[in-house]
Amino acid sequence: MNFLMDAATLAPIEYVPIQTVYQNRNRGSHFRPVADSCRVYGRLLRFALSSLAGAAVDWLLFSLLLWILPLPFPQIIFCGTILARVVSGFVNFLLNRYFCFHSTAPAGTELLRYFLLFLLQMLASASLVSLASCLPIPPVAAKILVDTLLFFISFRIQKNWVFLQRRKIDGT
């Protein structure tokens, strides 16, 4: 599946109808629903796991910073949020780079692209949740909907731009 998705961006795709033939009621099939589905959706599953790990780091570090930073209440929330988000973003970058997308490209360009996406995604989340506050939707529900949409958009952007692996189809 990953090969087909990558190939679609590198070469034109032509659809050709084919006839499906099952011999002996498909008794010779070696399709394994769970294992084969994991192989097809593996990258997206790893991306989801890295996102959950980043959220856990963000929450734990924010909680720790609230406890140890000697700042008054409004400033501690602001500083704790920024510090925790930056650290969890870097952890998420590393997990996505090595665990999800298996990138071998130079890290500097990828980190710069990731940071730009990171900032735009935070701004998009805040803006869209603010816009949704005009609707009769609770803010927490709006945030869940907006961030779920941004999760899938972020996956595509990271796959196709941040961690883009340049491959040639003909091997040259």
Structural features:
172 residues, mainly alpha, elongated, disordered C terminus
Q: How would the global form be characterised? A: elongated
Low-confidence stretches: 168-172
User: Which range best describes the helical content: under 10%, 10-25%, 25-40%, 40-55%, 55-70% or over 70%?
Assistant: over 70%
The description of the largest β-sheet is: none
SS element count, helices: 5
Radius of gyration: 21 Å
Helix-and-strand structural type: mainly alpha
What is the CA–CA distance across the termini? 22 Å
Sheet-strand content, in percent, reads: under 5%
Oligomer: single chain
> What is the tally of beta strands?
0
Average per-residue pLDDT, rounded, comes to 85
Written as H for each helix and E for each strand, in order along the chain, the element string is: HHHHH
